[in-house]
Automatic annotation (TrEMBL):
InterPro entries: ABC_BtuC-like (IPR037294), ABC_transptr_permease_BtuC (IPR000522). Keywords: Cell membrane, Membrane, Transmembrane, Transmembrane helix, Transport. This is Iron ABC transporter permease. GO terms for cellular component: plasma membrane. Belongs to the binding-protein-dependent transport system permease family. FecCD subfamily. It comes from Halomonas eurihalina. Its main location: membrane.
């Protein structure tokens, strides 16, 4: 572990605080004493149902989804050697969205919609990789351009599906496209995938630092560049697919969080990867809490909140940075 791990301690405390706020705030707010009583195994029956059955699974799902998106964004930025790359830049979200909307139009349930979104994201991954590879080897620039074109194609299909969809199905489809954690379900999948991916990628931090300087320099220093790039692409695609399956299309987290951390903490991937996981989870947890409470009992799409929070913060950091 590199020196200067105090940011990870602060981010871990911020993650715990965000979970506490998510459990306490809502259309029915709980005092700290009532919340501690529920977490300690006591408290009123209504409070236990509210916290343990409704708010806790959603808060954990929000944290896991944000962690996956931020970690995928950090990996994409190393893979493409582009600080403005994000998990959706290769059209993964578009493929998942088209499949999910088709499942909704077919009248399928929530679990089947999630499965369709996951399948669409993986299909988009294979298409982009196959087209970018072509008859020769792929480069980050070629993959980026292929992903941008595929994303534009998926966007056109999404617009077509929305135009021909029945009016009564449009609200649910639009909420899914803007990101919605209301039907996230069990959080253990996203949390498990986030923890496993960090365990797999953390030992590669030093190697990723070398790769970030360029493929030719990394190869000259003995790094197996092509297998490492394949690994980054597949892991980032899998993380994005799981996140989109859980919460729909939530933008800006994978772009903003790694870039903000890099501006503040430097470019050491041994620190950036775990920091991205913690910061991304914290950001999306706070955003979802705001989405639930701003106009309670009605709820806003969490993707709207992430954009409203992220755009001014990102522009301010860019203004302050050299």
């Amino acid at each position: 572990m590199p020196t200067g791990t105090w940011p990870l301690v602060l981010l871990a405390l911020a993650a715990l605080l965000s979970q506490g706020l998510a459990l306490a705030l809502g259309s029915v707010s709980l005092s700290p004493d009532a919340l501690l009583a529920v977490l300690g195994g006591g408290g009123e029956s209504l409070h236990r149902t509210l916290v343990l059955d409704l708010r806790l699974p959603r808060a954990l799902a929000a944290f896991g989804t944000g962690a996956l998106l931020a970690l995928a964004g950090a990996l994409m930025q190393v893979l493409l050697r582009n600080p403005l790359a994000d998990p959706y830049v290769l059209g993964l979200s578009g493929g998942a969205s088209v499949s999910a909307l088709l499942a909704m139009l077919a009248g399928l349930g929530g679990g089947l919609v999630a499965g369709a979104a996951f399948g669409g994201a993986l299909a988009s991954t294979l298409i982009v990789f196959g087209l970018a590879h072509g008859t020769g080897s792929w480069t980050p620039t070629r993959m980026l351009l292929t992903g941008v074109v595929m994303a534009a194609g998926w966007s056109a299909l999404i617009s077509f599906l929305l135009a021909v969809s029945p009016v009564e199905q449009l609200p649910g489809m639009l909420y899914w496209l803007m990101g919605d954690l209301s039907y996230a379900g069990s959080p253990w999948l996203v949390l498990g995938v986030a923890a496993l991916s960090l365990v797999v990628m953390a030992p590669l931090g030093r190697t990723l630092n070398v790769l970030a300087r360029g493929g030719m320099q990394a190869a000259a220093l003995g790094v197996a560049v092509r297998p490492l790039e394949w690994t980054l692409y597949l892991v980032a695609s899998l993380l994005t697919a799981v996140a989109v399956t859980t919460a729909g299309s939530i933008g800006f987290v994978g772009l903003m969080v790694p870039h903000m951390l890099r501006l503040q903490l430097g470019n050491d991937q041994r620190l950036i990867l775990p920091a991205s996981l913690l910061a991304g989870g914290t950001l999306l947890t706070l955003a979802d809490t705001l989405a639930r409470t701003l106009i309670a009992p009605q709820q806003l799409p969490v993707g709207v909140i992430t954009a409203l929070l992220g755009v001014p913060s990102f522009l301010y950091l860019l203004y302050r940075s050299r």
